[in-house]
Amino acid sequence: MSDRRRICTALQELVGEVGYTALDAEAVCRRAEVEPVVFDRHFPSLDACFAAVWTSIDVQLSVQMRSGFTVPGGWRERMRNALGVGLRFLAEDEGRARLYLAEFHFAGDGVRIPRASALERLAGLIDRGREEPTAPERLPGTLAEAIAGGIWHRVADLVRAGRAAELPDELPNLMYFVVMPFLGREAAQEERTRLP
Amino acid sequence: METLPGHLERMPPGQDLLQVEQLSLTQRERILAALAEVVAERGYQATTVELIVKRAGVARTTFYENFENREACLLAGFDEGVEEARGRIAEAAESEEEWPEQVRAGLAAFLEWSTENRALARICLVETMTAGPKALERYERALRSFTPMLAEGREVATDAEELPETLEDSIVGGIVWMVHQRLLRDEADQIPGLLATMLELTLVPYVGEKRTAEVVAGI
User: Fold this and answer.
1) Chain B: nearest CA to A149, how far in angstroms?
2) CATH 1.10.357 given to domain A50-193
3) Helix, strand or coil for residue A182?
4) B25, B75, B192, B208: least surrounded by Cβ within 10 Å?
């Protein structure tokens, strides 16, 4: 494993164990078994290291969700699959989910733009709902952005509460929230009562 | 003999206690106003006590007479901002009779407050959560405190039992995300224009599309 990868792995593990605000570069170096000068060669700061780890998680999540959105079927099926894949990915590793959804707040400005991009991507998938034949025409252009923000908030809530393992169970409620404005109450309720 | 705090010792002779207390209140307000300004310019992480006191025109000792540290000052600003916004929302909602119109009035008041007080809104919706786990928890608790207002919609919904338990959490999250982004990007002028989206997000699950369209048309 390369030094950079060892440092990133160490940071991810430590954030999951003790939280980012309890860390310093020396602790990460000790866990990674590298000298501080090696850390400095790869990252100008601990925040920069965090941003690199966060982005790596985001890329993995994005690839999986994009792939999940390409299954056969209409928008609703694809949205359900993409969200389900994303929730399962986050649920697999509680520490990783905490880093991605909660701890980034404390790591400076380096994650702000990538995080906004992540939500824009999610909003982009959600917004495809307005192409459905039964979607109301009056829906505002920023609705998908609001829904994406609500999903992030709800998922982050569960992760902060130490309930990342329950994320896949939240899919029906999140799909209700996504589907309601575009396909109406009946379709939203079908999502909510759908068996896994 | 009781020792007076530093700033009170410097008061000219003859000042009565009410004026002294008034000065304390003013200094606290000045510090909080300075905090909001500096944080809006530099972000919380780059805001130091030094910068705050310089902007407020108070001594460092005065800062520490009012606040234990930088984070305590931020959280005091946050609490005041939240209560101010809550008051504006409640007052606006009370002026309407029916729940959908109450939501419209409350949301409009929130958006107006965020636009008129963008530095304080930025503290509440952008910066506080970056200050550490305790501050993040305070922020999340404040958001949760607004969900009962939305949950009143279950009393007018025709099929309340079908609504997800977590619906109000998701709605609040969506609302603050939109305002958060505009504040972060320095696009506070766009905030009032978000009302229609927020009404669609908030009302459709409870009162349906037709009623929501009526409320949106009344903006």
Assistant:
1) 4
2) yes
3) helix
4) B25
Write out pLDDT tens, residues A122-154.
Answer: 999 999 999 999 999 889 999 999 999 999 999
pLDDT band at residue B4 using 50, 70 and 90 as cut-offs: very low
Q: Would you say B198 and A146 are in contact if contact means Cβ atoms under 8 Å apart?
A: yes
Q: Is the pLDDT of residue B11 over 50?
A: no
Q: Which domains does chain B have, with CATH numbers?
A: 15-67 (1.10.10.60), 71-217 (1.10.357)
Half-sphere CA count of B121, side-chain side, radius 13 A: 24
Interface of A with B in 156-195 (CB under 8 A): 157, 160, 170, 172-174, 176-177, 180-181, 184-185, 188-189, 192
What is this structure's pTM?
A: 0.91
Contact state of B169 with A177 under an 8 Å Cβ cutoff = no
pLDDT in the model for residue B128: 95
CA distance B44 to chain A (A): 10
Contacts by residues A61-67 (CB-CB < 8 Å, ≥ 24 positions apart): A61/A86, A61/A89, A61/A90, A61/A100, A61/A118, A62/A118, A62/A121, A64/A89, A65/A121, A65/A122, A65/A125
CATH 3.10.540 correct for A1-43: no
**Could you give the ipTM of this predicted complex?**
0.94
From the list B170, B176, B178, which residue is nearest A151 (CB)?
B170
Residue of A21, A185, A189, A191 to mutate, interface with B, max B Cβ within 10 Å: A185
